Amino acid sequence: MDPALFDPSSKPDVETPTPQFVNEKLLKCMREEIAIANKDLNYILDSISSKEDPDLCEEDRWWSRAFHQRL
């Protein structure tokens, strides 16, 4: 066994990411997830905007009518 593995003064081969780096990566991932959710939401709203889409099931038609009555 290599004693350097247990020596706290030895520097690891891989640098530990800084909190700022981690935050930037998380922020990037969150922005990507929000963009995907936004696309999904726009798709749903577009499908709702066509009031009587024959492809909608009865529950979706009910929600569509309720949505348009509130507009």
Notes on the protein architecture:
It is a single chain. The chain is mostly helical and 71 residues long. It is built from two helices and no strands. The model has no long low-confidence stretch (mean pLDDT 76).
% residues in beta strands = under 5%
- Principal-axis shape: rod-shaped
Which regions are unreliable across 5 or more consecutive residues at pLDDT < 50? none
Distance between the termini: 71 Å
Helix percent reads 55-70%
**Structural category:** mainly alpha
Q: How many E strands?
A: 0
Would you kindly provide a brief summary of this structure?
This protein is mostly helical and 71 residues long. Helix content is 62%, strand content 0%.
List the helices and strands and how they pair.
Layout: H1 19-49, H2 58-70
Defining key terms:
mainly alpha; 0% strand; 2 helices; 71 residues
